[in-house]
Amino acid sequence: MNIRTIKSEADYKLALKRLEEVFDARIGTAESDEADI
C-alpha cells in the first residue's frame, strides 16, 4: 500500500481508479485495508 496525499486533479483521478480496483476486496486482505484508508 502506498499512501500519498492528493495534490492535483491527476492524483485524484489515480486515487479514484485505485479505489475502484480495491472497493470490493475480501475483508482481511491488504486490498481491503487499502480501501478502508
Description:
This protein is mainly alpha-helical and 37 residues long. The protein has one domain. Helices cover 57% and strands 0% of the residues. It has two helices and no strands. It has helices at 9-22, 30-36. The longest helix is centred in the middle third of the chain and has 14 residues, at 9-22. It is elongated. The protein starts with 8 loop residues before the first helix and ends with a helix. The mean pLDDT is 88.
Task: Write a short abstract of this structure.
This protein has helices spanning 9-22, 30-36. The protein is mainly α and 37 residues long. The chain has one domain.
Write the layout of secondary structure elements.
Layout: H1 9-22, H2 30-36
Which key terms come to mind for this protein?
elongated; mainly alpha; 2 helices; 0% strand
Count of individual helical segments: 2
Strand content: under 5%
From N to C, what is the helix and strand string?
Answer: HH
What is the end-to-end distance?
10 Å
Q: Report low-confidence residues grouped into runs of 5 or more.
A: none
Helix fraction by DSSP (H/I, runs of at least 4):
55-70%
Global shape: elongated
Question: How many separate domains?
Answer: 1
Largest sheet: none
User: What is the CA-atom radius of gyration, in angstroms?
Assistant: 10 Å
Please report the total strand number as a whole number: 0
In terms of quaternary structure, what is this?
Answer: single chain
Overall average pLDDT: 88
SSE-based structural type: mainly alpha
